Amino acid sequence: MSLEAPPSGWIHKKIARDEKGWIIAATVVCIAMFFWMILWHVYGKQNPSSVTYYTTPEEFTSLTNSFIEQNQIGEDNGIPVVMPKPESDVFLLAQMWRWSSVIVLKKDEWYKFHISSKDVMHGFSVQPINMNFMVFPNYDYVLDFKPNKTGEYMIVCNEFCGIGHHLMIGKIVVIEDENELANYGY
Amino acid sequence: MSEENQSTTFLESLLNNMWLLLILGVGVYFVSYIFWGWAEIILIKSIPAEVKDLFTK
What we know:
The structure holds 2 protein chains of 2 kinds.
Chain A: H1 17-43, E1 51-54, H2 57-71, E2 72-76, E3 79-82, E4 89-95, E5 98-99, E6 102-106, E7 111-117, E8 122-127, E9 131-135, E10 139-145, E11 151-156, E12 169-175
Parallel strand pairs in A: 3-6, 4-7, 6-12
Antiparallel strand pairs in A: 1-10, 2-3, 4-5, 7-10, 8-9, 8-11, 11-12
Chain B: H1 10-16, H2 18-43, E1 45-46, H3 49-54
């Protein structure tokens, strides 16, 4: 059997020079990658905030509705369009099969997104920049977000959430100044 | 004393026992990841009051 232990005393045998070299190289790579992982957490430009809060669908729905009332500037196919102030909290609720609002953001300004689900697990995938996060009911996932390019971005649900999953498309619009709103019909 | 005649050390007998290594290799990560997961879940707080106050009617 190939899985038998080698003859007794193998541990005292000297390691060949090339094998020792590979062991050292593998150890150095492991240690370097371990510290790089920590450094990347500090210096990486696209790290999530790693902040999560407990919530309930009722509480989050109420907060989202208040957020929409305070920031609504129009409607897009029956979906409220909101334009929160820079540096403010943005509430986005996912539910079968829609996103709570179309969000208008200013370029190069920070926003604190709170994302949660009302029913089942959804995915928050911003296209075409390919940003992906899972959205769970009962958890408020916080994302610090600074858009650096103007334009229209689609929010696609990338976790299968039922028969209307493919229709669950939201929108984020990034503008430089408010005169551009007319270009998007708001 | 030749290398073959030297006594078997604890490390050698541990490394020779592949089933024990298998159990340790799976078990250590199983226990530590479950502990880590529970610790994360226990440490989650509710939405801060100052954020709620901004959006409470």
